[in-house]
Amino acid sequence: MNALNQYIELFESQQATIDANAPEALNARRQAALEALKQLKKLPEKGDEGFEMISLNDMFAPDYGLNISRVHFPADAQKAFTCDIPNVSRMSVLMVNDAFVALPGLENNLPDGVEVMSLAKAATLYPELFKDSIAPVSNPVVALNYLFVQDGVFIRVAKGVRLEKPVQVLSIFNASAPMMAARRIKIVVEDDAKASILLCDHPRVNDFDYLNCRVIEAETGRNASLELYDLEESTPRTRRASVTAVAQHHGSNLNLVSLFLNGGMTRNEYLPVYRGEQCTTRLGGMVIGGGAQIIDNAVFLTHDHPHCTSEQLFKYALFDSSQGAFEGKVTVAEGAAYTNAHQSNRNLLASENARMHSQPQLIIYCDEVKAAHGSATGQLDEKALFYMRSRGIPEAEARMMLINAFMNDVLEGIEHEALRERLRCLVDKRLRGSESTCQSCAALEK
User: Fold this and answer.
1) Cβ atoms < 10 Å from Cβ of 420
2) In a domain, 72, yes or no
3) How many independent structural domains does the chain possess?
4) Average pLDDT over residues 128-143
5) Which of 121, 194, 293, 303 is deepest in the core (most CB within 10 A)?
6) What's CA 84's distance to the chain center, in Å?
7) pLDDT band at 443, cuts 50/70/90?
8) Burial code of 299-332, b = ≥16 C-beta within 10 A, e = fewer?
């Protein structure tokens, strides 16, 4: 079955309704997205280049519902934010399926120079911020998102504002039927500003098939800093296709850490873009896979400006019959002198039936470059395990301790100390076989 055709037909039959329920700034890119999908002809399938473990065609094939007519889905904000991440001061917003939900008192809690609002409202107030597309419409997930997006979350930190308290965006599914959500999150961190943002994906109803078609677009101004932490704790019946595109201007810093603790089938793509020199990009990923889960992370990064630094570290621990994939392509273009690029993928197979595909790539067209990449897949160190058992540590506990130690340097990349320790706790719970979901991620103390 060609899943792409059903979405093209749906859009063409419902375009008037979709456009009527969204601002012009969101509608403006729909035609380009439609043309890109028609040229594509089909969604990538398992075995296509870059899709060794996951078929986007199979992911999008089921008959999911779409909330085109903007039916209101009630959500109890208090229940949604009963959480397992305390002791961190922050501000929280809620996205129910694909709709922004304004929480009481949010505006009063925001510092001067910080805006958090509905994407549809922001597109009406600031249409100029939506003219430039960071995520490429040639990407099938981006194009499908552009076809159907009607709302989402908008975060803006004004020039010179240093936002020390993290903003948390909790995205939940609560539909009592199969549903696809075209979620969009747009982040603007202006010159000399700093922001920390935590994204949490959770379901509120576990008995239905959900598809999260998500696009995150972020822009960091000159000498700005963005910490972006992405936590997925969903269900085996939830699928996620996500693209994160970040445009970095001169001297800006990006620290992005992705953590997969629970879910069904996930494909994450990361597309940093340089728009100036002397940028620093740090990408970290941690995957704990179990059951029949499939988790695929792909990074496509082109160094096309001089004096930029990128570091990538992705680690997987795979149990049962879970499958993982990592594709990392770093290109150093002509003229990108004094680039410093490092990429590493390390994987633990904790079961005979677990599978991992790793394909790091480094392509260099420039001299005066420091670059390295590598990948390793193996099992736990039996000598270390024997040593720990000889000191009286039970085997199961020893294995967990070794896996925790293996993941530690990814967690150390989380700069916010209280958040880092809480996530460390969640990882420990996950490794102990607990559900570890925080029943929706949570309001941290203000």
Assistant:
1) 17
2) yes
3) 1
4) 95
5) 303
6) 20
7) very low
8) bbbbbbbebbbbbbbbbbbbbebbbbbbbbbbbb
Strand 152-157 relative to strand 114-118: parallel, antiparallel, unpaired?
Answer: antiparallel
Report d(CA 194, CA 220) in Å as an integer: 9
Residue-number span of the structural domain to which 259 is assigned: 3-431
For residue range 34-87, list pLDDT tens digits in order.
999 999 989 999 999 889 999 999 999 999 999 998 888 776 655 555 445 544
Q: Is residue 445 part of a domain?
A: no
The answer to whether the beta carbons of residues 424 and 68 sit under 8 Å apart is: no
Residue with tokens 């490429």: 136
Residue 81 lies in a domain: yes
Question: What pLDDT does residue 78 have?
Answer: 56
**For residue 57, which amino acid is it?**
N
Residue 437 lies in a domain: no
Instruction: Look at the pTM and tell me if it is higher than 0.90.
Output: yes
Beta bridge partners of 363: 331
**Model confidence pLDDT, tens digit, residues 153-210:** 999 999 999 988 889 999 999 888 999 999 999 999 999 999 999 999 987 767 889 9
Provide the 3-class DSSP secondary structure of residue 121. helix
Secondary structure letter of residue 200 according to DSSP: E
Tokens 């630094």 label which residue? Answer: 309
pLDDT of residue 440: 32
Nearest to 107 by CA among 86, 121, 87: 121
Task: Give the residue-averaged pLDDT of 295-324.
Answer: 96
Task: Count CB atoms within 10 A of the CB of residue 78.
Answer: 9
Closest of 339, 330, 343, 341 to residue 367, by C-alpha: 339
- As a whole number of angstroms, the distance between CA 22 and CA 365 comes to 44
Of 183, 187, 188, 227, the residue nearest 202 (C-alpha): 183
